[in-house]
Amino acid sequence: MLLRRQEVRGPSTGYEMVSIESSSVYGSVFYLDATEATDGKKWFLQSCGTSSSNGPGNLAIGNEGTVNMVIESGGHIGIGTTAPSYLLDVLGTDGSS
User: Which of 22, 57, 74, 97 has the lowest CB atom count within 10 Å?
Assistant: First the structure.
């Protein structure tokens, strides 16, 4: 559910900063949408709130509604998992040959 939509446009030169603040129990989400481009995706960064399925306090990165990577507030990084057990926890098949 889209609660609010905000467009931010800054000057073409100089230091620019975007801040997204939320009191939602699900956290704040920043979308990068290139779906109108050929093979474009809709990526997101989510600062997870207490009710987020991606883990409270975590930073989730993904596209098309699927979380690809999580950085836990304690420093663990999960690729392919939203609950990493190690400093770097990769879930998937080994692509080496």
Answer: 97
Count Cβ atoms below 10 Å from residue 67 Cβ, excluding itself. 21
What local confidence, expressed as pLDDT, does residue 5 receive? 59
Instruction: Classify the C-alpha dihedral 58-61-64-68 as positive or negative.
Output: negative
Residue ranges in the chain whose pLDDT is less than 70: 1-17, 94-97
For the chain, give the number of residues.
97
Euclidean distance between CA atoms 82 and 16, whole angstroms = 31
Q: Which two tokens stand for residue 36?
A: 């109108």
Q: What share of the chain is helix, strand, coil (3-state, %, to 5)?
A: 0, 30, 70
Long-range contact pairs involving 17-26 (C-beta distance under 8 Å, separation at least 24)? 20/47, 22/47, 22/49, 24/49, 25/49, 25/50, 25/51, 25/52, 26/51, 26/52
